[in-house]
Design a protein that fits this description.
The protein is built from six helices and 25 strands. By secondary structure, it is of the alpha+beta class. The radius of gyration is 50 Å and the shape is elongated.
Length: about 450
Amino acid sequence: MPKQVVSDVTPPGARRSVRSIPVPARSYRYRSTQDESGEEDVIENEAPIRIAPPRGGGNRALLLLWGVVAAALVGLALAVGIAVSGATVTVTLKSVPVDVSIEGTAITATTTVGAYVPYDPSVVEGVESVSLEPEGSKRVERKAVGTIVIYNNFSSAPQRLIKNTRFETTNGLIFRIPESIIVPGKIVSGGKTLPGSIETSVYADRVGTEYNIGLSDFTVPGFKSSAERYAGFYARSKVAMSGGFVGVAPFVSPEKVSASRATLRKALEAKLAAEVVEKIPADSIMLAGGYAFKATSEAEQETADKKVSVTERGTLTAFVFKRDALASYIARRALLRYDNAPVEFSKLEGLSFEFLSKADFGKNPDGRVLFGLRGTGTIVWKLDEERLKQDLAGKLKSETVSVLASYPAIERSQVVIRPFWKKAFPDNIKKISVVVKVQEKASP
């Protein structure tokens, strides 16, 4: 092999130029082509891989893609904004805690002023009976008893009837009232004149079965001297007269009968009080003990099995107040300053009601009731939520203060409008919600 000489100096006659630089040989790779016949491998040459430089059209496509994405995001944001758009107004109502200690007057008139509060009398009736084992037999004499309704169609002025006033049937039988009463005067309602009326028990003038009569009409003999008054006052029986008897009958001691009647009256009062509560509408209330109860004793009767039947008939008149009217009445009486705005009382059911005029109930034409109220609670101003929504619809957020200022019931408020970039309330009131809060405050 000839010896290679390394020289770092190029001989003068051997200068090299770019053109004289040899081109690199093609790259090669070997691929075995030998088969089972044992032929030699062949060598293939492979052209070099060239990468094309990027062209300007690629940048435009990328920008177009980002534009489409941005437009989609904006559309999505708008769609979500429309879907969740709305407004929420959170208000805290004006409230004042009070200690209630009132003595006042309620009447049946529909409009009242000052110290009066209206009520609606709700009347229920019932009967309770018990059969007692006899303690023997003896001769008895009893007068028939019953109940009548007395009418005053003579005058608008009330009429007092004294104890033992007579009432006469068409066939001349006389019954008397056991105590003095006042019959209310006639009134005009709905363009019609209605007679005043009152219910009372009566007893026969004499003993015996002759007075055990059915439903009847009665006149007042004491008014015969005045034809108009005699015609204007009359009565009708509410139940048949019964109990009149002369002869031998099963006997029960007066003490046992009296004890049985007391038990029957207590049970009857509780039953009627529960019954009347079921009839009271949601916007009204009968306070605990807020009623008048009257029981009438029917004469003892001998039963078919030779026992003694004791019966009590009762009438309960409930004093039913409208909740808002009673709350306003309490506000007028308990607050130093009250603007007569609609209010509610938070704990009406917790107030104790004391009936101060039981003995006089039914003697006044206006159904006057003297009562006492005791307890604690909170007077809360009422808000008309629908009207507030209508007043806010379409208003700018900056106008909220002036709108809310016209509502004295609102003590504080907070407004949230969605989405956040909106500057006005929706025009559709269904997209405006009002959240009402009442702040608990300690009693003074």
